[in-house]
Records
---
Amino acid sequence: MPGPPIIADWGDDLVIHVTNNMQSMGTTVHWHGVRQLDSVQHDGVPGVTQCPIPPGETMTYKYKVTQYGTSWYHSHISLQYSEGLFGPLIFRGPATDNYDEDLGALFLQDWSHEPNIAAWENKVRYGMTHSLSNLLINGTNTFDCSSASDDSCVGGGKKFQTVFKPGKKYLIRLINVATDSQFQFSIDGHKLRVIANDFVPIKPYDTDSIVINAAQRYDLIVEANAPVGDYWLRAVWVDACAGVANDHPEDSTGIIRYDASSTNEPTSVSAIEAPTVCSDEPLESLIPHMGFDVSNIGGTTVEELRVRFTHEALFTWTINTSSLALDWSNPTLTRMFNHESVFPSEYNVVPVNVSEPSLLSSELLGALSKKKTSSADEWAVLVIQNKVIGLLGTIAHPIHLHGHDFWILAQATGPWDGTTDSFTTINPPRRDTATLPAQGHLAIAFRLDNPGTWLLHCHIVWHASQGLALEIVESEEGIQVTERDRDVLGDLCEMYDGWAQNGTGLTDGSGI
């Protein structure tokens, strides 16, 4: 852990065979942030674009690399990626500043000694917080078992470390794959030059530290210009984020060495102040290198985030009173192939069809607003408001959209004023994951240029399992999937159903 890297060049066609060698679970693999232009069937979401891959079976994913930069692949079934089913996805292409060596992906994550699936069944699905045990950098860290109550705790371990050569500039591809943690990343004695967020190149800016929420990525250049020595690399757990917990939040460190033979523990110190709010990097810092403006915004639809308990006392998040709950055996894409005109309410489907203005009816829950000016300029605008009251309203949510980068029109605490006056429409930041502030709002826009069924969800693993998600069915009539691919998906569902009849394929929660 992490899994093997998948490295390709901008413009490549990828063919990836995934075999499920687990004995008691189905799985899928999602290619985080990948647009999947004209290849929605390979997005890897159970209950949306496919049935799970049953044990012993293989699915082949195929798509074109239309972006460049840093991302990751991960299971999209329940809590599997929080148990280690993830790896780096690197698409090589241009950069907005120069560097000498690409150090590859650097994963930041939290880790539970109790399996997260057990924690879900015993606590989290009832609304209780599970405190994770430790923090990891690229899958490793040390742990002291002297105070642990678990007899199986063996302790030891090692710190992540890498070696700098004086005068060299290094590219670090920073990725947060946490279950529910935000981090503040820094390297003692060194500046960070930020050149990309998610898959979007930005105008470079320098900083002492950077905050990164779950599922986000930043490409950083670090120059080895400090005095020769050993330095702490820090991924500080941000305790300003509410609703999360960790048993050892102070211990997420690695080591930068200028001498590969050194075994000294660093003595460097940091004067960087910890964040006081749970938020993203300032929007004014994240200026896309290639400018695109958002124009011709029509009306705007608001989605309200709330919570509820089911009749079984299970805790769920809702968007406009509805909580996602998928049937793995009957994905949305298959339902469309079968010409079903009505989706189950628990699928939280938001249809957006550029050829049917009637979809703007205010009676349609979650309908996204758009205004057509040309075939290349059709927009969907969505405002999500955190309307949760009490302590749960103090939680921020990293929101991720499949199939698109989105433009961040507004991101602020407090309610949205109902107008577009606060929207930034001139080359606003673009990315695929952004934080909905606690008791605040997030306004995003995206082009209606990729027909498919796309998930929008919170990337805190617990919240996704608790239903904080919706599906955007975009331009259904324009979805192009070959008969061969339809047959492949149908065969996969038949294999999954045959295996799931044994009772091992059932799950509670949303399914994602």
---
Amino acid sequence: MRLPRSAYLPQRTTPSPSPPLASLPFLLSFTAALFTQHAFTAHEDSITHEDHNHPRLNGAFEVDGGHDLEIYEPEFAGADRSIIGRAGEVIPALGNNAPGIQNIDQSASQYWTFPSTTLFGPNSPQTPGLPSYFEGQNVSVTPDAPGEIELYISLTTCQQPLAKAPNPTGSPDQLKLYVSKSSSNQQPNENNNDYIVLVDGGFGWLNISVKDDVYFGVYAPANEGYDGVYNYQLTASIDGFYASSYSDPNVYFVDSDTNSALLYTKNTTSTMNSTNSTFQQWMSRPPVFTLFVQNPDNPSILGLQNSVCGLQNLAQIQGLPNVETVMTAAGDGLPKQQFYVKNLNGSSTYYAIAAMIGNSTDFGSGVVGGGGTVWNSANIMTKSC
């Protein structure tokens, strides 16, 4: 029986719950070298996440029977073009943990398949694990059913159309993902599908048991008042989710002054013994998490707040020199990651979104968990000037 393997799983398999962080005074005791973060932009009043436990292309057009719209059929290097769809079109095939990356115009549909040869093919290589499970990490394993394979599907939006008017308050509609398990329906759409995947904040997911080719339809809605295209990553994996999103925050506001703030992640282990090997491994390794910070007055990430690539592309504040980070055991004596955010405005509120780039030890195509993880936002409040 094959079990899906997650590359960000720890080397030890016993979870260690950690106590919540205490309220701590503002402090800046950095004990290791500072590491670079990744940047971000705007947000909505309340950014929420669904609880997800969990090659560029060129080509020709055809008519989409589901929406009666012109659609884009991609052609790209490296795609398996042996899958023939309706009316003789070739449907590009996804590889295991290898995202199909594509721009899509509004009112257009694009189609993909995950062939059975890949479904029953080899797993992706494992990467080194973390020293232990960390608080807030929720890893689930679904055994394969007899004669079937559990397939993990994720759709991540990296770019979306931009508002024509200045100072927009909303965001364009989300992409739609339709899934078919039938060779008689190789171009699933709104009216003919086996599954509809909900996309929220630029991220959608589904895991299903399958035993044959699987087909996908990505549809980009029309948005009045918005110009431009969507860009997305569609990934299927027999190992585990390529990308993830969690509904709980993984970072907490500790203290601030008029133009900077201190935040901690949840504890990465429950052991307080500094001679313990797990404690030492966490304290000596590079920081695992990155931080995106956004002023709610800037809505640039609204609609992409659950997407690592969306945040990387658009978040206001990320990385040096504005975000410094280090592992620390300050406060309660337990390992955690510390963020020091600078150049903020006084008397202001910001959203802080913790994320993991890839699976913490590797990222990108071919890597289990290579699309990264996003947690829900926490608030930062700076003091009055």
